[in-house]
Amino acid sequence: MVAVGAFAGFTYWQQFRGAGPAILPPGDDIGEIIDETPPEGQNNTDFPLKLPDGFSISVFAKDLPGARVMAFDGFGNMWVSQTSEGKISLLEVEDGKVTKQYPILQDLRRPHGLAFHPQQPFTLYFAEEDSVSKIPVYSDAPSQKLFDLPAGGGHFTRTILFAPDGRLLTSVGSSCNVCHEEDWRRASVLVSDDEGKNLKTFARGLRNAVFMATNYVTGDVWVTEMGRDNLGDDIPPDEINILQEEGNFGWPICYGKNIHDTNFDKNTYIRAPCEEQFGEIPSHVDLQAHSAPLGLAFVPEEGWPEEYWYDLLVAFHGSWNRSEPTGYKIARIKLDAQGNYEGQEDFITGWLQGNQALGRPVDILVQPGGVMYISDDKAGLIYRVTL
Hints:
The protein is mostly beta strands. It has helices at residues 2-16, 20-23, 30-35, and strands spanning 56-61, 67-72, 78-82, 87-94, 97-105, 114-117, 120-128, 131-136, 144-148, 158-162, 168-172, 188-192, 200-204, 212-214, 221-225, 238-242, 247-248, 254-255, 259-260, 285-287, 293-298, 312-316, 329-335, 341-348, 352-353, 356-357, 361-367, 371-376, 381-386.
């Protein structure tokens, strides 16, 4: 019993000793700090959040615990999923400010993904853990379930996106840390028409592609991808991938640049596994392991400095099982116009304060005119960043 207890204690220490920022309450109210700080003071040494020169941050909305995915409707109002609260809220916006906010859909099962139909800007599609539905907003009409999804297991967030061809993409994470799935819908991105018909696999081998975004130059859909746990602080990398229809991104036996996960996969092969020539697609960009990359958004040309054009901004939600915490920031992935990787650097930091976190960024919406919105499920805020 002593040996078992010692092993359990070592495992806990090894895997969870850096979990404090993820699970402990914030030491300060970042919303109050921002509200009390003039924009010109946001780059001083006392202000916790550090932004590039010329950018400022404000609180766009507060009192939104569990705020995750954001979407704007045809009126310019914002809708926010509050996954942990089981609801989707409406934020009425006038002259760039929230005038009213209240829940519209409640008692949902871990709602996450939101998307408005490209040709119907008042038809909201939303993903719960076990289904995808749609509803006409600003009406009394009920929601309509389009299709069911597998529930339970380790990953419950479901994200949706309308691809450039009008089809609906739905991301479904794995049921486990690392395993061979029995349900074909797991660890994949699914595709259907806008009525939820003809549901099938679009891309597979994606452990947990939590967020998706369309590259406005190439039309490709990019995803953030969380690597598996229990291989140490720095492997495997988290990833950014570019989806390919019928593509296999390697999980559970491959990670990163087609590295074979021999810790899990003990099989003997006639040909070496995890090679692109045999079909497994390597990551496009490797990220720091356990950063938990979530929302991603491409920077448009209109109203943004030319040095940021085509770049990708990514929200690192932050680690929970790394000995030294990492993430809790917005990163800038430098790209050329064709999406080729040119490096990465921090864009906003400061949510991580020692063994506590003031917040955890989740989703990002970038708009023309040098404006972006960031949701924070720990602080219950929506931030607005401007030039």
